[in-house]
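The data are set out underneath:

___
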Amino acid sequence: MKCEYPRLMLAAPKSGSGKTMMTCGLLNALLRRNLSCRSFKCGPDYIDPMFHKYVLGIDGGNLDTFFLEKEKVRGLFADGAKGAGISVIEGVMGYYDGVGGNSTWASSYEVACSIETPVVLVLDCKGASLSMAAVVKGFLEYKKDSHICGVILNRTSKVMAERLKPAIEDLGIRVYGYLPECEEARLESRHLGLVLPEEAKGLKDQLDRLALKLEDTIDLDGLIMLAESAGPLPSFQKENEGVEEKTAGRIRVPIGIAKDEAFCFYYQENLKLLEEMGAELIPFSPIHDKNLPKGICGIVLGGGYPELYARELSGNQSMFREIRRAVECSMPILAECGGFMYLHEEMETKDHQTYPMAGIIHGKVFPTERLMRFGYIEAFSRESTGFMKTGESIRGHEFHYWDSTDNGNQMEAQKPGQKKSWDCVHAGKNLLAGFPHFYYPSNPVLPKRFVEACEEFRVMSSKEEQTHE
């Protein structure tokens, strides 16, 4: 029986092993074979999926068992992988690294178990040889249901790969090839991870050359066969089933969404959910556009790198006026992390230059020397506001090197499995803004109320226009 969802995961013992470039090179090589590909990323990552999209030309998805129950993760995967010739899932951090650093909860391993996918470990062999066999043995034995079926030896020579292959395959798994240390597999990084695809000069040519290298050194046919050997997907629950039917036929609510060099971090599942609930997402650039899109009834300001474009953002006073006018008119606004920073009165850059910002949130954002409040959170609403009621919660994560003189206190962020918590989020009838990146499917009531508020704004605006006529 043909596998309905051919799939495999590329994972690694640790971060920095070369997973992302190996995944992109593999996707590119599979495309060159005219295979229909889909991609997914384990964990709360924005940048790696951008590289996947750069290769495939289509959005992928995030698979995260902290954000969603396993049945819903399977449903999300099934929806995204439907009809694909092969789906490639990129792991996060070390294969068994989960919440708190001392559990496998929300690890790549837990995702692999959830969707019953075969796993290939990418081993960084720089500075090691036979010790890699010991690493593999440990990973296989740490969990009896490891799902690890093979390895790819990264940053090693053909000679060393041939020497290591028998020792590793004696452990009962397969060596699917190697990749020597090469320029094609190198990519610049910065504080939030890899640079963005648009910033990597000559990336297309680099990935084409990487795909050709993989054709020579990786058993692509073997990897395809491994993906096709994946068993049936366990029973799954489709997320938000029936939502589209309820919104079918309704006039969509136009909502402006910030998308440019400074604002580019969005979960695709969040955007899809907003659209399923009736939103028409209209992109605009806080850097380049002088005005908000005409006729919008709400604004979404996502995360990104506003600190790198503070001068350009500050110079666009026309957009600031538009944002302030929207707030004065009670237009609903969602802003997270970079978008939250943008709404402040001032922003200090890494070189300690200070620039005026939109002025909606009183206070200043400033650089710190380390990640602030890093990791998964569940945020609980302390009081009833426009989009969240008292006691309701939503899951997300924080990942930022900047902080604020006023982070808000309408919600309490709690670290899972720990007693650590802190104040966060400015919230009112038509505003929710803070550093946390929320994963909307973990509590669809938030985006639902936001879209409903945008619809109410449209009705109110329409009545006002008729009155003035």
